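Supplementary Methods, section 5.1.

A reviewer requested that the exact input to the structure prediction be made available. We therefore reproduce it here, unchanged from the version used in the analyses.
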Amino acid sequence: MFSNKRAKTEAEEISQSSNIIGKGTLIEGNIETVANIRIEGKVIGNIKSKSKLVLSDTSYVEGNIQAQNAEVSGEVKGTVEVSELLVFKSTAIVKGDIITSKLAIESGANFNGTTKMGAIVKEISLSENVSSRKEKSA
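The structure derived from this sequence is encoded token-by-token as follows.
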């Protein structure tokens, strides 16, 4: 009885935590997280977040993105799939297709690709390694 309540609390804490990839950092490889993530540096690889993804105006991502919510101020080359709200800030440069439920684009944002809105975005599934680590800690 108590372990179930404790597991939910730990899972909620993990999903409410944040990750930051700082300015001047380069990551080559895929990133998967259940928590929020903010990227200020450069990522060459795919990004999956079951929470919110924020790409600052100094960020550069070359790869596909899947997130629950996303705010893009930097540059992205790849497909962007967001299950809820996708926001392109005025400094955003996006080269690739987007699939989202809701989209907001500020004046000045640059987007080249196709858009599917209102479509049901597939559930974000993390690899077994990330999921099993989460379950073990829960």
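The longest helix spans residues 2-16. These observations are discussed further in the main text.
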